[in-house]
Amino acid sequence: MNHHPTLAAVVVATTSLAQPAPRFHWPMDGANGTVVQEVIAGQNGLLQGGGVWAPDVGHHGGSCRFDGVDDRVLLGPCDMTTGTGEFSLSMWVRPDFVTGMDRTLLAKTIGPTAQDHIWSMTFVGANALRFRLRTGPTTTELTTAPSSVFGGAWYHIVGSYDGALMRIYLNGALMAETAVAGAMGYHPQAPASMAALSTGAAPFSGWIDDVRLFDHGLSQSDVIDLLLEQLSTGIQRTPSPTLSDGRLLLPADQWRTGRVMDATGRTLRELGPVELSGPIELRSWSPGYYLVCLQAVGHQRTWPIVVQ
Q: Does residue 132 sit in the same domain as residue 80?
């Protein structure tokens, strides 16, 4: 017997504005050498310890593999000088394994203690994430509950601060949040680094790809766009779909492919040609939170849908 759900409104608002542009972006698409190219501000990184480029292993093209011993990338200060007081980091990671020790993904610190972190994202406690951020004189720690994080799979990780809330997203799902007051300051004396602290401590073992820093707190719709983005950085927005009598009515476009995903980014099923050209029947879906992702020539669009 089919379940007949009540369909909530589309929970991500459609806007004519593009998602915030990053202030720094390291695509991690190198093939050799020790220069890690940054494509917006010219803040190139320096690969140390023998990290290996993996042109065919990345989530967005290539990536870089780190051995969890002494590999790291020194990035320079990477301060946000636009005065927004907000901050976000976004990256794709593929851990070899997740252990009980801290393993640094990104960090900007002035020393070894927790309160020395200006910002950082680390794996902790085998399969949790910790986001640290300094506003004023205080560094706040936000840690997720243990998650389903396994070695050998790609994960999209975002830490976001919008001036009021710190948030951690894993594969588009909000995993933790906390209220924080104050704005970020400038700390040019604090070096930023990737895959370990700048000293080489707390190293990460695995692959890192497509690292971005923002001077805005990313919204969930921004995070979802980044999660489902493929090789393009500009995602055109289309009108929102409408819900009618248990069916999702898509905006007119030449949709080529489509898929339905859960909140962690796992594909549940592909959409066929009939669904791409007509309404999507939702009345047989189980209650839950879904992402409907459609791809046309040159752009894509994603809508979160709640089925109750």
A: yes
Question: Which residues constitute the domain of residue 283?
Answer: 242-307
Measured distance CA(159)–CA(218) in Å, rounded: 8
> How many domains does the chain contain in total?
2
pLDDT at 301 over 80: no
Rounded distance between C-alpha atoms, residue 305 and residue 292, angstroms: 7
Structure tokens at 102: 């801290």
**Which residues are paired to 179 by β-bridges?**
165
> Tokens 């055109």, residue?
236
Residue-wise pLDDT for 135-173, tens only, equals 999 999 999 988 767 778 888 999 999 999 999 999 888
Q: Hey, which residues does 292 pair with through a beta bridge?
A: 260, 303
Q: In the structure, what pLDDT confidence band is assigned to residue 6 with cuts at 50, 70 and 90?
A: very low
Residue 132 lies in a domain: yes
pTM over 0.90: no
